[in-house]
Each structure stands twice: as structure tokens, then as C-alpha cells.
Amino acid sequence: MSIPKEPRQLMINIMYLVLTALLALNVSAEVFNAFKMVDKGLVKSNKALDDSMTALPEAIRTGAKKKASLAKYADLIDPARDLSGNMNDYIQNLVDQMVKTPEEGGVGRGYAIDKETGEFTDELLDKKNYDITTRILVGNDKQDGSGEELKAKLLEYKDSLLALVDDEDKEEFEKNIAVQIDDKTWQEKKKLSWSQMNFGHMPLQAVLPLMSKFQNDVKSTESAFLNYLAGKVGTTTEVVLDKFAVVSAPEKSYIIKGEKYKSELFLSAAAGADSKTGITISVNGQRLKTNKDGMAVFEQNASSVGIKKYTASASIKNPATGEVKTFKKEFSYEVGERSVAISATKMNVFYIGVDNPVEVSAAGVPSKDVKVGINGGGAVINKNGDGTYTVRVSTPAPKVAVNVTAPGMNASKDFRSKRIPDPVPKLSKSRGGAMGSGEFKVQPGVFPVLENFDFDAKCNVVGFRLVRVAKRQDPQFAVNRGGKYTPEAGSLIKKATPGDKYFYEDIKCKCPGDPAPRDIGTMVFNIR
């Protein structure tokens, strides 16, 4: 792959490499926010490219009128722009299909709505969903994905645009084509395909910047072609040096004490920068070394916590007029201490016999460097595929400690372990009182209910004693094993007539983690 000459395109490529590296990390909320920020930057850059090309077509047509032999170059404007427009629309259609709701022609859930204003926000509801991207772009057993088609169309677009270039210029122009497909990496990594490497099991929020990057490549290539035509007809655009801004691209804006803050500083031109224009960049008055593309790297040790600010300035000389313009902007980043958060997802109690979910987060530490352990209550802790943890305890204890260790920090949080609360015995929906004989006779038996318990647990009735007391008759007894009526107890149930009383005594049940059955009380029913 050739190295682009323009600072803008080099910046885009670097952002793409950083994004690819981020995908290899455990995706946290901060990283998802970074994906969103990168995508916004790419969208803004795409708009700047569109703006920069506004005046070019007319300038080329004007220049082509100088000689009849130049008219063919003006005739190439519309075919080239159609190729780019169709390619951009195809990519946007893939994005819409993944983001929009079924009612809008997509498969996603769209964007969140602000409860106060009722308007859509930029918060993507499916940002962590990787099933959508895999199904749409990679495919599955039921349908083919569109990723390989996207790859083929990008290559076709590149070849079609290159075919419009004069034969003697093809080799040089191809160096300026931003659309490039890497078919080597996925084969070396033994991936099934290019689309599987780029989109397989990637969260939606991470894929959107990739799609914006492809759109940026298309627009950059279109811009390069229009500038090629402008050069052919002897036209120099008047929008080369009209809008500029100093841009800082930090590796991260929140760092930990002891780390280095690192940021790339460059001059972003809304209409594209002339590669021959000299650019100087300084921070807080100190000049930084720049490369041939006008980029500089600013580094500063994080010696204390808090908000850190710095002022960057960039100066550029217009080679045509000799005028020097300077642009300044203030940037900030935050330095924080390392911290660990440990929280039980459902309750601050670990219950015996069920899975107790726990979340552990360590700010500024990669997940692979975080070690989590537990002691007390016969507890064990296991890490889940989504980065959360599950705790199982076997005995009641006043203290079960979850311990977290990471480079430069140690943290611990105590929980209690308890047995599952006593369930409530019920017959139909009642715990006792009056019940019609018809309803009473059709009940299959006694069952326990865990009321107001957030965990997925099931208790079972081990047995009970049933007593029927009818008017002017001696009490009749039946010992029932289990929750469902045995034949002996069932025969007493069938005798129920209005005025009878039924006593359910010594009801015992067993819940997950119970070493022995527990007594859960008595029920009395008056038959009416």
C-alpha cells in the first residue's frame, strides 16, 4: 500500500489503524465512546471533502474551454462523480440497514430518545450488538453477508476510476487512490475471509467508523481524480487554503498518573492542504518537530491528577502569496488515579445454591491484567464470556470477600452469604382461607413460591400432613410425600364439602443449596 501524500489522508489511515488496535482490547464504555468520537470525526472529514470539491467541477469545465482537445477531461467529471456517489450510497445503505429500525427498512433499534425533549440522541441502542454486523456483513448458514460484495464493489470502483485516467498517468495516479483492500492480513491470520476479519463478531459501534472510513476513502479518491482533471486542463483551485483548524488526536484523553499523554497534532484543511506548503506546529510556545506531512507528536508526563490544558498553534505559508497564517486552539485532557469498582449486579448478598452475578471494573487497566479472587462461605468465582463474573456460595457466612488485584492497586469488597429466603406455600393462588369445593378439588397439590426474589431458583415441597375435619365426624389424616397429592391424600380432597376444614401441617420444602428440608409453615382452608 502506498503512503498517501496528503496530511488529511495520512491522518485518516492512522485513525483507522488505532481503531483496529482498539478492537483487540476488552471493549469498555470508554472505548465505545472512542469509537463514536472517531466516527464523528470521520463524518466531519467526509463533509469537509464534499465542501472542498464543490468548486472543482466548474473550474475544470472552464479550463477545458481553452482548447478543444481538453474537452474530454470535462466529460469525465460526471462519470467519475456517479461512480463515487453510487459507491458512497451503497456503503450508506449497509449502515442504514444495520442501524435503522425494521419500520425504517433496517434490522436495528435506531437511536435512543431524550426523555425530556422527545428528540433522538446520538446514543446507538445496539452499539454492543455484534450479531447484527456479523449477520449483515459476514453472513451465516441461512444467508450470505454483504461484506465480500462490499470488498468487490470497492475494488470495482477503484478499477473503474483508474480506467478514466490517461494510460501514461495511471501508475502515478494509482498512488493517490485511497481505496485499498488488504488481502494479505486475513490470510496470514487464517481468517475465513476479508469480511470475517473486519466485521466478524464486531460490535456495531466499532463497525460504523470502519464504514465511514471506506466512505472517506471513496471521497478522497474522487477528490484526487478531480484534482487530476484540474491539472490536465491547467486549472488551479481557489479553495486550497480557505479553511483551517488545529486538530489534536490523542491516544486517549483520560490517562493514569505515571503514564504519558501522547497526541498527534496536525493542521486540518477543509479544502485540502498543499503538500508543498510549509507547516510549523508549537505547543505553549515551544516548536515541535514536524514530518514531511506536517504532523507533530506532543508528549507530556502525567505527574499529577486533574484537568491539564495546553495551547497548540500551527502556522502555514501560502506559496502563491507568501502570506503566513497562524491558527491556535486550546486542548485539555484529564489525569486520574487508578480505581476499582466491585458490585453485585442484583443484590449485595450472595445466596446459596444460585448464580450470583458480579461486575468488576478497573479504570485504566487492561482486563487481561486484572485478577479476581474470592474467599469465605465456601465461595468460588468464575469469569463469563462478557467480562462479568458469577459467584457460587455453599455455606452461610457473615463475610465473603471479593478481591481484585491489578498493577499498582489492590481492592476488596465484603458481602454476606445467606440461604435462599423461605418460600410461601400455596394452593392455587391462596395461602389459606375460604375456597369453593370445586376449585379446591381440582388443585394438583401444594407448591412453594419465592416472593420478591430476583434470582432464578426453584424450591420443591418434600411433604406435608393433610387433615380433614368435617362436621360431626372424626378428623381424617394423610401423610403426603412430595408436593403433588398422593392417592391417599387425593381421596381426602375428593370428599370436600361445604363446611369442611382442611389443615396442611408440617409443610417442608427444599431449596437449592439446602442440606436438609426446611419447615415453611401451615395452611388452613374453609370449604364453601
Provide a count of the helices.
13
Assembly classification = single chain
Q: Per DSSP, what share of the residues sits in E-state strands of 2 or more residues?
A: 25-35%
Provide the residue-averaged pLDDT.
Answer: 82
Q: For the report, how would you describe the main beta sheet?
A: 6 strands, mixed
Classify the secondary structure makeup into a structural class: alpha+beta
For the record, the count of structural domains works out to: 4
Please give the number of β-strands: 26
Distance between the termini: 88 Å
**Mind telling me the C-alpha Rg?**
35 Å
Unreliable stretches covering 5 or more consecutive residues? 237-242, 270-276
Which geometry do the CA atoms define? elongated
Question: What level of helicity do the residues show?
Answer: 25-40%
What does the secondary structure layout of this molecule look like, with pairings?
Layout: H1 7-23, H2 29-52, H3 56-64, H4 71-74, H5 77-99, E1 111-113, E2 120-124, H6 131-138, H7 147-162, H8 170-174, H9 185-188, H10 194-199, H11 204-232, E3 244-250, E4 254-256, E5 260-269, E6 279-283, E7 286-288, E8 296-301, E9 306-317, E10 324-336, E11 339-344, E12 349-351, E13 356-363, E14 371-375, E15 380-383, E16 389-392, E17 397-406, E18 409-418, E19 424-426, E20 433-435, H12 437-441, E21 447-449, E22 460-469, E23 476-481, H13 487-494, E24 501-510, E25 518-519, E26 523-527
Parallel strand pairs: 4-10, 12-18, 20-26
Antiparallel strand pairs: 1-2, 3-5, 5-8, 6-7, 6-9, 9-10, 11-13, 13-16, 14-17, 15-16, 17-18, 19-21, 22-23, 22-24, 24-25, 24-26
